[in-house]
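Hi L.,

As promised, non-specific serine/threonine protein kinase:
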Amino acid sequence: MGSRAGGNGIDLWSEIIAEEQEYIDQLQEQKIEVIYRRRRPQKTPPDVNSEKLESNKENRVSLAAATKRVSWNRSLSIRGRVSIAIAACVDNRPKQKQGKRKGKPPVPKGKVVQPPNFDKEKEYFQEVDAFELLEESPSPKNIGTWATGNGTDTSSIPYLSSRLEKWLISKKLNFSAAPSTTLSKLLETPAMPLETIYDNDFSAAHLKTPEKSSSKINSSLHSVHSRINAYLCSKCVPEMKSDSQMISTMLRSTDDEGFKDIEAAVKKLSLASTSTSVDHDYVDPFSSLLVVCGQTVPSTLLDVFSKYCDAERITKVGEGTYGEAFKAGNTVCKIVPIDGDLKVNGEVQKKSEELLEEVVLSKTLNLLRQHDGDAHNASTTFIETLDLKVCQGPYDNALIKAWEDWDDKNGSENDHPGEFPEKQRYVVFVLQHGGKDLESFVLSNFDEARSLLVQVTAALAVAEAAFEFEHRDLHWGNILLSRSDSTTIQFILEGKRILVRTYGLLISIIDFTLSRINTGEDILFLDLSSDPYLFKGPKGDKQAETYRKMREVTEDFWEGSFPRTNVLWLLYLVDILLLKKSFERSSKNERELRSLKKRLDKYNSAKEAIFDPFFSDLLVSCE
């Protein structure tokens, strides 16, 4: 086997042999005899060890080389053995055998091993999870204080009923107030005189419409279900005076007895929530609806109708998806069932909070009927709401007979009212009689058709200016017509008085269920995005197409102000008049209607449309 030269050209094996020969010669010169015996353990001083280490450093290279040589030769000559490697500073003493690891004791036969029990640990973590920080929870020791860290804030937390009581007192003692601030605001402040939202200086500049938010909060921020607003009636209901005096007496007698007595007094009037917890600042919408309607308990349907006519003279005059309309004397009573589990004509019944907003909206539009010298916006075209009542109980026999008579003549599409349960609730709108709806009314000539359009446009323009109003459901069933001897009707638009020719025709706009209004303190609206079926009407149907166009304009942000929706319904009315063949008109008249339709499509509000050339000769004066 040939040897391999190192990096400097020196034969490695020659060097090892030479060093070994020198070592052997030195041993012979010293004549050292090797005696084999057991070595006795000796304690070597530290200095001796250090000297040996120094000498080992000098011989480290030669020893390593010799080791390699011995290992190499033995591996070639002795097979099956392991060569012994020797290195400096390595402990080569044999290691002691480690004791075997003891295994688990065998399980006795016939016994079952029980799984580990973690009940204590589970109880501990449940206790930890149930623990509430003092900073975030009312102190259980003193329910009227809040604990923060080691300190205690002794400021008292008023009961809900005490704040509601103050609201009731303010509401019932201030008879001159128009619709008030919201119930939620009043609950946060002490009782004080209430301010009207509509005064001499009221204008559209006072109204604020929120900008569209990038994220809808539960739909609830913009949803009618998340808003329970209680407003005052513009005039006092006589029967409320006795209630007001009773509340004042209770307060005077219990003023020094704390909140508990006030709470009991409110409960007697059924106007407080049944919950007495201070953690739930909540007012029942049905109770709020009672207050707005000037009641402490619901009435019966017959009690309401009997104020206007005898039971035998009640007649049904119309119907809708959510209610029935009956004529009682010179009024029309619209009955809307609420809060029930029974479906009405295939639809879920309206909730109290929904009707609460419609009630408030109707009362707000009533304010437009004021035509005094200081009125800034005024119109009598919106139907007048004479009274509002909450009722409970079944339909009376007189109402059922009137309903069945209508069904025999016209074929009702609604369910029979006798199916309502004994405790069914209703809201009754007592309205002025506005006449027949456009669907069944027969127009005489083109002038009456023009009068219809100008009166509707002027009314929408006034409501836009006053309250950012949008009807959003102005189909031909929600426009009533009646004949009159008057030749003109007056509107006030942003301080300007406008006289409009009527040609003996008076218009009334009804049904504000889908409407949107800004009262100056709250925006009342119905979130139509929660009713997708409203936009799934047949293609080509004028009413269904108008709903879909509204959604395009609003982009499903129904709280916002989009007066363009009023223009969409004006376009719908023009289409209806073009399709209605009952009244006399010439081809020139039809061309004028089509030209109006093209121009209307460019307007963004009724305030712009009212000054269209189509209406110029109908506006008698504009001051």
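The first strand starts at residue 146 and ends at 148.

Thanks again for sending the construct details.

K.
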